[in-house]
Specification:
Elements: E1 8-11, E2 16-23, E3 27-31, E4 37-41, E5 45-48, E6 67-74, E7 77-84, E8 89-91, H1 94-97, H2 107-128, E9 132-136, H3 143-155, E10 159-163, H4 166-169, E11 173-178
Parallel strand pairs: 8-9
Antiparallel strand pairs: 1-2, 1-5, 2-3, 3-4, 6-7, 9-11, 10-11
Helix pairs in contact: 2-3
Length: 182
Amino acid sequence: MNLSVGDKIYVTDERLEGVLISFTKISVTIECPDGFEYTFPLDKVYKITEEGKVESKPQEQSHSQTSSKKSIDSSSTSVQLLFNSKNITVDLHLEVLVPQEYQRYTDLEALELQLGAVRELIREANRQRIRKFVIVHGVGKGKLRREIRRLLTDSYPEIEFLDGNYQKYGGGATELIIHQFD
């Protein structure tokens, strides 16, 4: 992602937009419409193009040779999910799941899409016998986190879940461990 002072920026965890006023290799500082300045880690922000679309970040490349793509269909939108064989982390932020269309979803539609992605991740993990992975949901107001945990408790008793690494995800992730495959 190429950044320049003056670019319009979207912050994933905060659902916040602002204008880039400075940046380093690891963080950006933006000024929001209310006049306040905020600094965020670089991996939590996206550039908004002149057309008003969120620019996709390049996927981190793994040195693993085994990967498989899986599409899910929810609300007639195809979502790409990538499983790598080592250190699996899946980001459920809308701007990552559906980068070109994320702004057209209501909060309820977004939640349903994200929960559908979780269900599909679990199916794919079962199919590939992947025992452990991390879902990044962000901190926000905690609704997605609560709904994911409710889904896991109600529908997947064979899956243990716990908070993701706090140093790495800052409370915005859940680690899943599958104890019994279908």
